[in-house]
Amino acid sequence: MEYLAGKFLIASPYLPDPNFLRTVVLMVQHDQEGAVGLVLTRPINLTVQEVWQNVSGESIDAPDQVLQGGPVEGPLMAIHQEPKLSELEVIPGVYFASQRENIEPLIRENRKPFRLFLGYSGWAAQQLEDEMEVGGWLTLPAKPEQVFETNTDLLWKSVSGEVGENIMRDSLNLKSMPQDPNMN
């Protein structure tokens, strides 16, 4: 199986876990030991400003919503476009950070675009592969403009629509899909 870092996982109707209903997950890391991803479609009722106030005691102007990255508790995590503040490049131009010294300048200096996450999605060795084998997830290469899309409904619709088009094109053995199938 190919490793899925840098791809989107889109929950299929065959995935029974309610934590992932209608989710798009950006895969940050995936190897033989397991996988880590961040849900891009689960905003929570907290702003970056509120989280930063709780973490640092400092008041800043940051009204963006924080996302629930998944059901596993963990440190604050961020996806951003600042190579010097990263621990890992997820896709070209999109970086991951979980260390405070990397996240703090993003928040304090409001270096957009960035997305802040509480929690993450994690899979033990072979767990994700088993879920993939039974059709629990669909995949798509991640694009920076989609990673930083703040309208989570729009993100879900565009990514799931793109996956659907790919499935139709592949199953019909087409080189391209017309925008309007009535135009065949």
From TrEMBL:
Protein name per UniProt: UPF0301 protein C5Y93_00375
Similarity field: Belongs to the UPF0301 (AlgH) family.
A cellular-component GO term for this protein: cytosol
Pfam families: DUF179
Cross-referenced Gene3D superfamilies: VC0467-like (3.40.1740.10)
